[in-house]
Amino acid sequence: MRVVIILATFLLLVSWSFAQEEETKEPEYGWMEDVIFNLSFTQNNFDNWNQGGDDSWSWQSDLLPKFIYKQEKYNWENIGKFSYGKSKVADQTARKAADEIMLESSYTYKLGAHVDPYIAVKAQTQFTAGYEYTDTSNVEISNFLDPGYFTESIGVGWAPNDQFRTRAGVAFKQTVTDKFAERYALGETFRSEIGLESVTDLELKFHENITYTGRLSLFSNMKRFDEIDTDWDNLIKGKLTDIINVTFTFRLFYDRDVSAKRQLKQTLAVGLSFDLL
To answer: Among 235, 247, 236, which Cα is nearest to 272's?
Structure first.
């Protein structure tokens, strides 16, 4: 049911992308670079405030590089996501609010048909250690490459316009871990799976200054339908000025190897955004 609801929501957005499709443009070839840097900061301070409250601050930075080499017969696309941030409330120690590394490279050969074959590799992990905080101690539960996810896939893709593209195929997924394996009783520090993967990217422009970017990744080792690994990453950005933006991020993550329940994360922030390239 979880996957069905996500797919239904995503399909509604996809239908919007087709309804908003612009006139066909002449294809452009060569390198196309796009590197975006986001920085946001929030701070609260209370002094003799009768309604109460705790001093707090938080910050987050994101680096989103994209390098695409387009040719008449093939596309080579390289994307990344580097996010890190911390927050502090009252007398607590500063804690992580964001921590993600994602790199992906895909090669698509253009057959000139409705679908084109592709091959892709992807790696995901985090920068620093993650902790579970208690009243008496801090217990490390994750770290760089603990866990780390690596995926290699081959299949076919479809990209009818610049706003929507999807691909599906056979995938090989490796999970490496150390303390994470002990924490979640995985029983092994390396796991290799073979299954089916689909990745769908969607970019929408609701207004001149409001954009949506979403990616839905699904992986199944074909053992149980209710154990489909799901990663749905969403970003809505509203542009106030040339460098000041309001951003809302929402991410749903489900991997039964990590937790029997889905994980949710959302962030609303005002900050600076720069196009480095």
So the answer is: 247
Question: What is the distance between the alpha carbons of residues 138 and 199, in angstroms, rounded to a whole number?
Answer: 36
User: With respect to CATH, is domain 30-275 assigned 2.60.40?
Assistant: no
Report the candidate in 193, 170, 198 with the shortest Cα–Cα distance to residue 256: 193
User: pTM score, two decimals?
Assistant: 0.83
Contact 248, 266 (CB under 8 A): yes
Question: In the chain, what are the domain boundaries?
Answer: 30-275
- Contacts of 259-265 with CB under 8 Å at 24 or more apart are 259/184, 262/2, 262/230
Judging by beta carbons within 10 Å of its beta carbon (0-12, 13-18, 19+), is residue 174 exposed, middle or buried? middle
* CA 208 centroid distance within chain: 24
Contacts 24+ apart (CB under 8 A), 12-21: 13/202, 13/204, 13/212, 13/214, 14/164, 14/200, 14/202, 16/204, 17/161, 17/163, 17/164, 17/202, 17/203, 17/204, 18/160, 18/161, 18/164, 20/163, 20/204, 20/205, 21/161, 21/163
Q: How many Cα atoms sit within 13 Å of 124 on the Cβ side?
A: 12
Residue 70: exposure state from Cβ atoms within 10 A (0-12, 13-18, ≥19): middle
**Short-list 77, 75, 65, 79, CA closest to 29:** 75
Both structure tokens of 70: 């387009």
How far the first Cα of the chain sits from its last, in Å, is: 41
CB atoms within 10 A of CB 191: 16
- pLDDT digits 0-9 by tens, 175-226: 898 876 665 555 678 889 999 999 999 999 888 889 999 999 999 988 877 7
